[in-house]
Amino acid sequence: MKSARISRRTLLRGLGASMGLPCLEIMSPTGRAAAQAGHPVRFLGVFQPNGVYPAAWDVIDRADGGGFDLSPILAPLRDRMGDFSVVSGLDTPARGHVQMTGAFLTGTPIVNLRNAVSLDQQIAAAIGHLTPVPSIQLGTEPPRQGNASGEPISLANTVSWDTASTRLAPEIHPQVAFDRLFRRPGVAEAARRRSVLDLVREDARSLQHRASGADRQKLDEYFEAVRGVERRVEGILNPPERDWMPPHPPGDAALTRPAPVPPASREAHLRLMMDLMVLAFWTDTTRVGTLMMAHGFSRQSFAFLPGVSSDHHGMSHHKNKPEAIAEYTRVCQWFVEQVAYLLGRMKAIDEGGTSLLDQSVVLYGCGMKDGNGHVPVDLPLLVAGRGGGALRPGRHIIEKPGTPQANLLLTLGQGMGLEIERFNEASTGAVSGLLV
After folding, report:
1. Does residue 65 belong to any structural domain of this protein?
2. d(CA 22, CA 339)
3. Domain boundaries, position 39
4. Domain contains 340
């Protein structure tokens, strides 16, 4: 007996949860062929704090013109040589940990507590309506308070800026992140949120007639933040029609809700957050994400690594002492080992003749070069994935001295389909040789 056909937009629904199905034979109209049409492209920004030791990061081009040799820090990526490009020569206008963290995806420094809209949020504004969650921000380290050079350290909690004055904090608890991605509030609860937002918005608008020019600007930013919440609520009340379905499902183990307490091991915690990010992309729950591998002013201990005793921030100010440089290099290499794990997970996911990594743009690096002196030039950056055919990986791209990092953000934005000629008024052109 022939099974009844079902729509390829069919969702699995449970108590407060919903999830898209993989492509199945009983789906209409054309089964797998329909699922392969129009593969989505994802964007992921991965931030590492505290810079690198330059001599241990910088790659060397081969004399025969056959590519480049990996440096000690990048050695863990040897199995992914054809999947990423190193981009050298880009500078940041920011100074210090706080500003350099904020500029990682905006290309602009924080001035008077204000920044610009980050690349991930510009992409989310363009494609976020196509998925249940417009974007997701994940991390591993709690927010910090205090001041650094007169600026709040809290500004370095994230690299995602929704408006010039609105930051999106990363979620560091795996279970909460899982629930945010895969569990949905009920329609009645979402409707209550909508009504409250409507009341708040109307009350705020009534103030505009009496507000000063500066206050009206603040209210405009407030409205934009409210609209962002409204868009998320609207996605619950009226879920978007799915324009693509993953051809292969994640296994049951991957969809198991994490424990309420994060793993004690730093590596296990970070890899669990990476697994959640991959799962979010795999299921097309979102196509935009950022991952803070640690806080922008991180003082985490890495004593679990042999030969390492200093905290991360302390060793970054190495003062050219060999023992501190050795620790600093080993910790940076550990971060790259985790990136290699992430890229390997993405490469292993088959999306019907292509991989999740091939359908992604992954930007990894730091907002500063050498932590010893907060060096703002020649940032350590690499771009992985093929962006659905938009990127040409496997290259070492060297920009001329003085080229702003915003040029790379402009190029990646264009590769993701943004119709922009400049990026946050900070770019001077596109990075040559990165896009096809």
Report:
1. yes
2. 27
3. 30-183+244-415
4. yes
Neighbours of 104 (CB within 10 A): 32
**Digitized pLDDT (tens) for each residue of the chain, 436 residues in all:** 344 444 444 454 544 554 554 444 444 333 333 333 478 999 999 999 999 999 999 999 988 777 899 999 999 999 999 999 999 999 999 999 999 999 999 999 999 999 999 999 999 999 999 999 999 999 999 988 888 777 899 999 999 999 999 999 999 999 999 998 987 666 566 666 666 657 666 776 677 677 777 777 766 766 666 666 666 666 656 667 778 888 887 877 778 899 989 999 999 999 999 999 999 999 999 999 999 999 999 999 999 999 999 999 999 999 999 999 999 999 999 999 999 999 999 999 999 899 999 999 999 999 999 999 999 999 999 999 999 999 999 999 999 999 999 999 999 999 999 999 999 999 999 999 999 9
Helix orientation angle between 266-282 and 174-182, rounded to the nearest 10 degrees: 10
Give me the phi and psi of 43, to 5 degrees please: -125, 135
Q: What is the DSSP string of 3-44?
A: PPPEETT-EEEETTEEEEPPP-TTEETTTHHHHHTT---EEE
- pTM of the entire structure? 0.83
Residue 34 located in a structural domain: yes
Domains contained in the chain, number: 1
In contact, 415 and 390? CB cutoff 8 Å: yes
Contact 273, 139 (CB under 8 A): yes
Determine, yes or no, domain membership for 405.
Answer: yes
Specify the CATH number for the domain of residue 177: 3.40.720
d(CA 424, CA 410) in angstroms, rounded, equals 9
